[in-house]
Fold this protein.
Amino acid sequence: MIDFIIFLIVGGIIGWLASIVMRTDGQQGIILNIVVGIIGSFIGGVLFGPTLGGGGIYGWLSAFLGAIVLLAIVNLIRRGSVR
């Protein structure tokens, strides 16, 4: 159970940091930040594979980059341009 809570907290932090970088922080709440962080982690794992997708700092970096890619795709769909 504690692992699940840590998973949500880390997902929220990564989603929040990615939303700051992509300037979408004012449009998102904590739930959307968590979702972006979790989906971004999956995307980062797919894009970077075992090279960056491992544990520790490389896993965090992979998840962060995946979250940025996710927000860029969402911005492209919503506005027609990446900020």
